[in-house]
Amino acid sequence: MMAIYRGYMTTHPGILAVLIIWDTIHSHHKLEHSPSYGPFVAGVKPFLAAPIQILHFEITESKQLKEAIESPVTQISQLHVTGGQVAPFLKGYHDGLGKYIKGEKYKGITLMYPYEDVYALIV
User: Fold this and answer.
1) Is 8 within 8 Å of 16 (Cβ atoms)?
2) Which sequence spans correspond to the domains of the chain?
3) Contact 21/3 with Cβ under 8 angstroms?
4) What count of other Cβ atoms lies within 10 Å of the Cβ of residue 21?
5) How far apart are CA 23 and CA 13, in angstroms?
6) How does DSSP classify residue 47?
7) Does domain 2-78 have CATH number 3.40.50?
8) pTM, to two decimals
9) 6 φ/ψ sector (left φ>0, alpha ψ -120 to 50, else beta)
10) What is the pLDDT of residues 39-83, one digit of tens each?
């Protein structure tokens, strides 16, 4: 069982966001090993500019996830954190975001333009 969200970003015409909520990780593995998965991926690959990356995350705060998904704009960031540093990183991120929301000076988060041009800095 799964719920699928596909989001086309008008500000980033070459990006398609796909968010799939599975009941278990085993359901996703069952799909990957089904006879239809190989032909599906083969049919999609000619349209992709980069390899497919799939990450799974355990949902521990379903109420917060529901609120985020139902919001008009939801950012999903993929951050690679040094091993063993996830808890300190999340504490610093949470503390810094709290300062930003309160209007305090904080240099750890930059929110400049709501519709940033990701190619603007590429010359």
Assistant:
1) yes
2) 2-78, 80-123
3) yes
4) 13
5) 30
6) G
7) no
8) 0.54
9) beta
10) 988 998 888 888 888 878 777 888 888 887 788 877 777 777 788
